């Protein structure tokens, strides 16, 4: 650990940081023109101030999205649009972009925002926030808010997987929206494409967790070591986080299905035609959401089984470790018993070997007498200790045997 810290400090001293290469010319220019001595903290303040101002101005001014028309054709791909203009065009308010903006600029450390799903209806649109999909659905257009360009978290592989998943989602969405003569209205087809994409990603992630967990459990069956236990702990935390994410989506769909007014608000086409749905006349959207609710519920049940497997494995590992610990303690008690029995024999022989006058030295069988007495005491103490040790090993579920032994 100390060597690693020393190596990091050495690299930090020997290699100039990137910001110094970018900021030093500006410092030199300022000091040359003003004649003032540059401050040591000036590069930090300049860099952070520039970053904060640029992010703040961009966040308050523009939003990037991909737009589909009523035929499923991409009209704008990753286009930066002014928020004020976008809100006026689609009758939205600033609070509708609050969660989207926080997601766009939070980067890789914003796992909390990704885990909070929501489906909100407005006068002529539906706003969805499910996993990495931020979308606005209307009766004749769909806007997918792009967040990949602003995300700084993850490596190159994760960005490639996200780009591939997003391209497949755009293709499926375009094909569903291009279907003419379908019984489902435009907004339902768009919502179905989003739900299919979300459930596909959840299923893929679940399969990855299943495979990783099975490999860890199979390795623990062969050998319980520190590395495998560490992997099990890490995977347990990931599965718990994934379970919370799926559970929130399932509960969201369940709450929407139970709310008749919200289900009626999803019929954007009928509302704009002046024929809003009332009461329980929402069988189409209810069946659509219910099918994906069942899919999410199956994923939740599977993840709960994985958590139960982890819990069972942890209990078995604890029992095995406790058993090994008890065996080691028992082995120590056996050695102590043997040493105690040997000690009584050595004590008798030491008394005989003292340079004192006694009647044993005058007898012809004194040596044999000492050997016999020492051996008898050795065997008696050894048998007594072994008997007590066997009684200590007997463990019952009720503890009646141990209570009776203590009373004796």
TrEMBL record:
Primary localization class, coarse: mitochondrion
Keyword Transmembrane helix attributed: yes
Record's bilayer topology term: Multi-pass membrane protein
Alphabetized InterPro entries for the sequence: MRS2-like (IPR039204)
Superkingdom of origin: Eukaryota
Molecular function terms from GO: magnesium ion transmembrane transporter activity
Subcellular location per the Swiss-Prot or TrEMBL entry: Mitochondrion inner membrane
Gene Ontology BP, a term: mitochondrial magnesium ion transmembrane transport
Described purpose of this protein according to its UniProt entry: Mitochondrial inner membrane magnesium transporter required for mitochondrial magnesium homeostasis. Modulates the conductance of the MRS2 channel. Involved in the splicing of mRNA group II introns in mitochondria by affecting mitochondrial magnesium concentrations, which are critical for group II intron splicing.
Subunit structure: Forms homooligomers. Interacts with MRS2.
Family of the protein in this entry: Belongs to the CorA metal ion transporter (MIT) (TC 1.A.35) family.
Protein name from the UniProt record: Magnesium transporter
Organism of derivation: Suhomyces tanzawaensis NRRL Y-17324
């Amino acid at each position: 650990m100390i060597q690693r810290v020393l190596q990091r400090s050495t690299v930090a001293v020997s290699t100039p940081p990137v910001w110094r290469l970018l900021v030093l010319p500006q410092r030199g220019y300022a000091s040359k023109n003003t004649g003032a001595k540059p401050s040591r903290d000036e590069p930090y303040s300049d860099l952070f101030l520039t970053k904060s101002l640029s992010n703040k101005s961009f966040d308050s001014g523009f939003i990037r999205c991909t737009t589909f028309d009523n035929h499923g054709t991409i009209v704008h791909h990753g286009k930066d649009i002014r928020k004020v203009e976008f809100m006026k065009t689609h009758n939205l308010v600033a609070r509708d972009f609050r969660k989207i903006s926080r997601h766009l600029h939070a980067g890789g450390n914003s796992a909390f925002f990704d885990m909070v799903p929501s489906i909100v209806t407005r006068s002529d649109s539906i706003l969805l926030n499910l996993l990495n999909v931020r979308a606005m659905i209307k009766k004749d257009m769909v806007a997918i808010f792009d967040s990949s360009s602003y995300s700084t978290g993850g490596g190159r592989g994760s960005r490639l997987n996200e780009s591939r998943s997003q391209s497949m989602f755009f293709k499926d969405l375009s094909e569903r929206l291009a279907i003419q003569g379908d019984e489902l209205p435009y907004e339902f087809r768009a919502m179905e494409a989003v739900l299919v994409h979300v459930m596909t990603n959840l299923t893929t992630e679940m399969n990855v967790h299943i495979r990783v967990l099975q490999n860890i459990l199979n390795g623990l069956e062969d050998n319980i070591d520190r590395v495998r236990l560490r992997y099990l702990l890490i995977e347990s935390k990931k599965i718990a986080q994934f379970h919370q994410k799926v559970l929130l989506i399932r509960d969201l769909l369940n709450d929407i299905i139970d709310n008749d007014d919200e289900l009626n608000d999803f019929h954007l086409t009928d509302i704009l035609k002046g024929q809003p749905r009332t009461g329980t006349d929402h069988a189409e959207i209810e069946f659509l959401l219910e099918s994906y609710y069942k899919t999410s519920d199956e994923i939740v049940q599977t993840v709960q089984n994985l958590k139960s497997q982890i819990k069972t494995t942890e209990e078995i590992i604890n029992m095995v470790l406790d058993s090994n610990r008890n065996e080691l303690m028992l082995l120590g008690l056996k050695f102590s018993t043997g040493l105690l029995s040997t000690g009584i024999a050595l004590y008798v022989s030491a008394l005989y070997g003292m340079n004192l006058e006694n009647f044993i030295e005058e007898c012809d069988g004194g040596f044999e007498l000492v050997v016999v007495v020492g051996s008898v005491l050795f065997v008696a103490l050894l048998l007594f200790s072994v008997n007590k040790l066997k009684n200590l090993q007997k463990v019952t579920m009720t503890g009646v045997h141990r209570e009776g032994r203590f009373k004796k």
